């Protein structure tokens, strides 16, 4: 029976804004992720950072009191050499990481690359390769520089396409012979859930926020195609991929209205990749725009660009499945809408309410493969939990069980003939949560002694899952 391919890329994924810290070092300017404060008194369901107003941005920029966890991460900017050794010890074959735009182009007034920022990534990428790992770079993972919000009101402004293009070209020129796999934009569909972090537009700076969101993402789709075109014209031996956060939903039951609701909900998650792999906007999304009074500016030149520059692979982050129900969506005024999810009674949830569903991974990857036939990278998967450090380790059997179950389903996909490039466990070393700013929502195989307010020694400890994942990699998943 077919198992994991011989050259399977086992590894992990991290993001600059959640791990590096050093938020104002070596010329870096402030980025949007640096604006999120941690408030101990808030309940976890309210720690979300979906939207921001102009006043909230201004407050965060000037605040001298609050603790902003992503400004500090786990100090990886200074510790990466030691941290990479731990990943090497587990036998990592790949590391997916992101580059922080505000390190490379800190200012829009003088839009020239910051050599000190580039030097950091020169050394970091060399170190990844020296430790035997294939580097996979994400060009933008929630690291939008603040000037994009302040000067342009975010990605809705077409000038941002040029800035991103120059940023991306700078990276491709410098690293194309070291980094083969590039993800243009992290989770391009997450603007449904985290619009501010995704497109950088404050909720109170535009009249039609929905339109700004979709114009912003269209501009990102154009920016990604421009980088693909550039790499192709330069003759670089690289692959440019796109990325979805899987948000595939099941219908609550077999009532045809629920089945159609789920299908339409899912289409609103697929339209990004429908454009990026098939080269044109599908009819259903044009209908959704019409009915929702969303008028996106798409030029004929952009249409031609998208048609000729479809992307090479699909990166997917998968954490949970969803279930939608007409009962929660009765108020719908358009044929298509992004639906609210209902708790699935058949699934357990994590303390953050994320439904644990390994079979959902088999389900969604099969849908993606059947739709696109593009190689798939599991760019993120894992379980965020509260861990307890005891006797210098963490007995995280829950994490082992979660990842094991997902790998078993991944093997099912491979047996079906789906081309899976690799598996990147999210946050192999504990890092700051993207959605809640908590350090204590931990995903790692390595524990970092640091709490939500930044207290702790910063010391690293190997968890039980560290040894388990090491063995999985050593045996190429044969003993699952
Ligand atoms: C993905 C993001 O959506 O989920 C990561 O790409 C993020 O940046 C991960 O950290 C897990 O989410 P969270 O909110 O638990 O950190």
Automatic annotation (TrEMBL):
Cellular-component GO terms for this entry: cytosol
Q: Which GO terms describe its molecular function?
A: beta-glucosidase activity
What's a single GO BP term from this record?
Answer: carbohydrate catabolic process
InterPro entries tied to this protein: GH (IPR017853), GH_1_N_CS (IPR033132), Glyco_hydro_1 (IPR001360)
Q: Name the UniProt key words of this record, in alphabetical order.
A: Glycosidase, Hydrolase
Q: Spell out the Pfam families in the cross-references.
A: Glyco_hydro_1 (PF00232)
Q: Say which domain of life the source belongs to.
A: Bacteria
Family classification: Belongs to the glycosyl hydrolase 1 family.
Q: What is this protein called?
A: Amygdalase
Q: Which organism is it from?
A: Paenibacillus solani
Source organism phylogeny: Bacteria, Bacillati, Bacillota, Bacilli, Bacillales
């Amino acid at each position: 029976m077919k198992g994991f391919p011989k050259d399977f890329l086992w590894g992990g994924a991290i993001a600059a804004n959640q791990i590096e810290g050093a938020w104002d070092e070596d010329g870096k300017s402030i980025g949007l992720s640096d604006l999120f404060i941690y408030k101990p008194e808030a309940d976890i369901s309210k720690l979300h950072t979906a939207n921001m107003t102009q006043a909230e941005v201004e407050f965060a920029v000037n605040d001298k009191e609050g603790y902003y966890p992503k400004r500090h991460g786990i100090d990886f900017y200074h510790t990466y050499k030691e941290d990479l050794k731990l990943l090497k010890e587990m036998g990592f074959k790949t590391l997916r990481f992101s580059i922080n735009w505000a390190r490379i182009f800190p200012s829009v007034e003088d839009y020239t690359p910051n050599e000190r920022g580039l030097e950091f990534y020169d050394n970091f990428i060399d170190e990844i390769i020296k430790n035997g790992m294939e580097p996979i770079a994400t060009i933008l993972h929630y690291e939008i520089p603040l000037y994009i919000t302040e000067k342009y009101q975010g990605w809705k402004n077409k000038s941002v396409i040029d800035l991103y293009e120059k940023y991306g070209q700078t990276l491709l020129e410098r690293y194309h012979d070291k980094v083969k796999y590039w993800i243009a934009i992290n989770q391009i569909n997450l603007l449904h859930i985290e619009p501010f972090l995704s497109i950088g537009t404050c909720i109170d700076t535009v009249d039609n926020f929905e339109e700004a969101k979709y114009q912003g993402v269209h501009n990102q789709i154009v920016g990604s195609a421009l980088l693909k075109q550039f790499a192709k014209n330069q003759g670089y031996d690289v692959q440019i991929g796109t990325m979805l956060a899987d948000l595939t939903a099941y219908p609550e039951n077999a009532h045809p209205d629920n089945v159609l609701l789920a299908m339409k909900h899912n289409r609103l998650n697929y339209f990004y990749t429908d454009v990026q792999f098939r080269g044109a906007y599908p009819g259903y999304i044009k209908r959704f725009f019409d009915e929702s009074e969303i008028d996106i500016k798409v030029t004929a030149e952009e249409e031609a660009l998208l048609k000729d520059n479809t992307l090479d692979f699909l990166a997917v982050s998968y954490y949970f499945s969803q279930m939608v129900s007409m009962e929660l969506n009765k108020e719908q005024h358009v044929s298509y809408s992004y639906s609210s999810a209902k708790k699935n009674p058949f699934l357990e949830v994590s303390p953050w309410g994320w439904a644990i569903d390994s079979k959902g991974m088999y389900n969604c990857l099969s849908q993606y493969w059947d739709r696109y036939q593009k190689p798939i990278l599991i760019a993120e998967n894992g379980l965020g939990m509260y861990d307890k450090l005891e006797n210098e380790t963490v007995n995280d059997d829950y994490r082992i069980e979660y990842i094991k179950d997902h790998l078993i389903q991944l093997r099912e996909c491979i047996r079906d003939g789906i081309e899976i490039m690799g598996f990147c466990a999210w946050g192999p070393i504990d890092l700051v949560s993207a959605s809640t700013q908590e350090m204590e929502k931990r995903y790692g195989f390595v524990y970092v002694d640091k709490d939500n307010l930044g207290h702790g020694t910063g010391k690293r400890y190997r968890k039980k899952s560290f040894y388990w994942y090491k063995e999985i990699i050593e045996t190429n998943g044969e003993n699952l």
